[in-house]
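Appendix B, example 12.
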Amino acid sequence: MKLSVVATLYQSENYISEFCRRATKSARSLSDDDYEIVLVNDGSPDNSLHVAVEITEKDPHIVVVDLSRNFGHHKAMMTGLSYAQGDQVFLVDSDLEEDPELVETFSKQMRDEGCDVVYGVQQRRKGNWFERWSGRWFYSLFKTLTGLTLPENVVTARLMSRRYVDALLSHREREVFMAGLWHITGFDQRPHAIKKHSTSTTTYTLRKKMSVLVNSVTSFSNAPLVGIFYIGLSISTLALCYIVYLVVYRVFLATPLSGWTSVMASIWLIGGMIISFIGIVGIYLSKIFSETKQRPYTIIRQVYGHRQN
């Protein structure tokens, strides 16, 4: 199969029909009749599944993978990629904020430049000043904590070669942060500036954004745990310095209340050492925890379309 188009569905019932029509037109222009469109229903609470299934009954090129519940955008994307069979895979959101026709532009650039991935980058980040500022802050913080320099303002839309997709799917960590996985998979990746439209209300609430931030940092860095260790070490050092100060003060300057010096010094010193030791143990536990928790990305309830049997 020449081309697979992969998209996720979540509150997408108003966009599915037009998305499929436009994606089908572009796919046919590139691969004639040798293509598929894989739609992953990520537990959408609206009528997205019903609308998508109706389309599969009319078009044998369209497949709907229905997940048992909402697993999250990133895990749904990985499920769709694992189900795609094309030599090239075009990943895009179904809400039409990214034009399905980008697959034609990306395909031309991939041929001309001989690269493995062409990914979209927003010319100007969508949203108000807070969203743009928080986006810049996120990338800066991520680079500081992990040492990885991610391309800024990337979007979902990207055209990928088969070997890149296979390599991407070889990552088996349970908590998925797609932007990080896209980057560390490597290969020859080229950006393409696009304009992202505002067609729908974002489903990424502040709580979800904070969750993505925490997940991204902890998935690619143990800096928080190392930070805890160094904080404890700093407290221990300050406690030792304070002990020296108290001894000098007691011997040469004055006599404090009986027992106060030893109590304060011991509390600070032991407290700092405990935090340091917890940080060290936490580093090892985090690695063991990540490796032993072998839950599946998602659970598929049913597949609709020409590959159902």
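The chain has two domains: 3-221, 223-292. The chain has a mean pLDDT of 80.
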